[in-house]
Design goal:
This protein is mainly alpha-helical. It is built from 15 helices and four strands. It has a four-stranded mixed β-sheet with strand order 2-1-3-4, sandwiched between helices. α1 packs across α10 and α3 runs antiparallel to α6. The radius of gyration is 29 Å and the shape is elongated.
Length: 357
């Protein structure tokens, strides 16, 4: 315990590291505020004949971010002013159109020159309307085989009443579901990049000087390096954990702890294998590559799936990997930390042999 307290004093003596940790916590929290703000105006929906089909369409759209309006003119005015990205107007004869199959122009879609993503909202509206039209398509097809359309429509109504209906799942080009949506992506991306930068940019002990030779490999490892690194890692994990709690992303705290452990092992390896200049060059290269390949603002692996292999070796992406299999990556982190200690010991042994010669 006394060794850890001494290491804590040494770490806190350099004010730059505590300041960086505080900025990291604040930045993670601010990322949640920025991500929570809508990136684009919502869409609106109004109209309909008041029947069950219209109500289901409206419910489907409002569940996907549409705002419900009672007045068509008010909604159109907000679209024109840019307060709404676009608007969907359901006709008063919606049920008659569904029954007769006259679907051309059955929904009015209002946009303006200020609209940003009307195609996305149009897709939502088309899916919601098609779900209500699907029973009539099936009824018309089965009626040719002698099945009364009333029975088919009744079965569909019963299914809708129980909550059964087809739905869509958005997937990436590699076939995996996109799980990191909303504010989590920006918050976790910020935490991954900042903690990587803070930990790899934090001061390290001079393991290449005379101190390892004077103390010996074992004493140097147990009384100097490991206590200092343990304090550095724990402070970084605490800063990141507090930031996630403030950002309402506490479920990521356990993966973040594993992630920081992996970064600690990387610190030890770089401490033995690279100088300060090389370490900072590597830090800049990995950060730039992570911005393009990690699922934060943009993800080039959606365009070029083979880049996933490169992405997996980037330390900032390890946080996403740890969230998928935390126990497995905890074991990997412990093994990596043990191996990193071994690398340091080998480095010191080589230095001792060079001194003897």
């Amino acid at each position: 315990m006394r060794v850890l307290l001494f290491a804590l004093k040494r770490t806190m003596r350099n004010f730059s590291y505590p300041i960086l940790l505080a900025l990291c916590t604040v930045s993670i929290f601010l990322a949640s505020l920025d991500a929570a703000a809508p990136a684009h105006p919502p869409a609106g929906v109004c109209g309909g004949d008041g029947g069950a089909a219209a109500q289901r369409i409206v419910s489907c759209l409002t569940d996907n971010g549409f705002l419900l309006f009672d007045n068509e003119d008010e909604m159109v005015h907000q679209v024109e002013s840019g307060a709404l990205d676009c608007g969907v107007i359901l006709p008063d004869d919606l049920l008659l159109r569904l029954e007769s199959g006259e679907m051309e122009g059955c929904v009015r879609f209002v946009t303006s020159p200020l609209s940003l993503i009307p195609d996305r909202y149009r897709s939502h509206a088309s899916a919601a309307v098609f779900r209500e039209y699907a029973p009539y398509i099936a009824a018309a097809a089965l009626e040719k085989g002698g099945v009364p359309s009333e029975e088919v429509l009744a079965e569909y109504e019963a299914m809708f009443a129980k909550g059964y209906a087809f739905s869509f799942e958005i997937t990436a080009v590699d076939g995996e579901s996109i799980q990191y949506v909303g504010s989590d992506a920006l918050v976790i991306g910020t935490a991954a990049l900042l903690l990587f930068a803070v930990l790899l940019g934090a001061p390290t002990d001079d393991v290449r000087g005379n101190l390892p030779r004077r103390l010996g490999a074992k004493k140097m490892l147990l009384t100097v390096v490991l206590p200092r690194e343990a304090v550095t890692i724990l402070l970084a994990a605490a800063a990141g954990g507090v930031g996630l709690m403030l950002a309402d992303a506490a479920r990521w705290i356990a993966p973040l702890a594993v992630y920081v452990l992996l970064l600690g092992a990387l610190r030890l390896v770089l401490m033995a294998a690279a100088g300060e200049r090389e370490r900072y060059i590597l830090l800049a290269v990995i950060l730039l590559a992570s911005l393009a390949l990690c699922p934060i603002f943009t993800d080039l692996t959606l365009v070029l799936p083979p880049l996933r292999v490169v992405r997996c070796v980037l330390p900032p992406y390890w946080l996403w990997l740890a969230e998928k299999s935390p126990l497995m990556w905890l074991m990997i982190g412990c093994a990596a930390l043990t191996a990193a200690c071994g690398v340091l010991c080998v480095r010191w042994r080589v230095m001792e042999k060079m001194k003897i010669r």
